[in-house]
Amino acid sequence: MSHEDLDRFEQVNIQHARLWYSNNARSVDWLLSREGVRTVHKRMFEEVWAWAGTYRTTGKNIGVDPARIQVDLETLLGDTRFWIENESYPPQELAVRFKHRLVFVHCFPNGNGRHARYMADLLISTAYKLPMFGWGGDVLGIDPESRERYITALRTADKGDIGPLLAFALS
Fold first, then answer.
1. Side-chain-side CA neighbours of residue 1 (13 Å)
2. Distance between CA atoms of 133 and 71, rounded to whole angstroms?
3. How many whole angstroms separate alpha carbon 10 and alpha carbon 79?
4. What's the CA gap between 121 and 133, in Å, rounded?
5. Counting beta carbons within 10 angstroms of the beta carbon of residue 73, is it exposed (0 to 12), middle (13 to 18) or buried (19 or more)?
């Protein structure tokens, strides 16, 4: 199977996950739970990878140490619930901050960027009833022309400036 074939197969599986979620919408509490995070990843990639929805057990050049995944994820989920309850950020910024931290934790061996973007989409639509993000014009993938802008925005967010990532999400 070529890389292009794999990309297409993944995209079809992601669309199946979107359909599943639209027919099985959950609460914000479920979405902001370890079960929710893992189930969404599993639904996005279960027809592609047997391990979909399973936390990674090996180190990567990005992300936290595998031994810290569950702790750091639980901290992020708690922080996000706090942000929502206390209106710490405007809704779209809150969802993008959640996405940025989720991709930083890097829970899974693969698919973390697409998963984190979709989780932000689900959060903004579930918690605030706002439209999902544009992500540079490609719903869950990043077209090659937008990828550089996306990576630059992520690196800028890593340094504490969420603005370019928020702008990218809204584009």
1. 9
2. 28
3. 30
4. 6
5. buried
Q: Where are the domains of the chain?
A: 3-170
Could you identify the residue written with the tokens 């993008």? Answer: 96
How far is Cα 58 from Cα 44, in angstroms, rounded to an integer?
21
Q: Which DSSP symbol is given to 52?
A: T
CATH 1.10.3290.10 is held by the domain 3-170: yes
- pLDDT band with cut points at 50, 70 and 90 for residue 141: low
What is the C-alpha separation between 78 and 76, in angstroms, rounded? 5
Segment 28-79, tens digit of pLDDT: 999 999 999 999 999 999 988 999 999 999 998 889 999 999 999 999 999 9
* Radius of gyration (C-alpha) of the chain in whole angstroms: 15
User: DSSP alpha helices (H): ranges in 46-129?
Assistant: 69-85, 91-105, 112-128
Q: What distance separates the 2 farthest-apart alpha carbons in the chain?
A: 48
User: Does residue 84 surpass a pLDDT of 80?
Assistant: yes
| pTM given for the model | 0.91
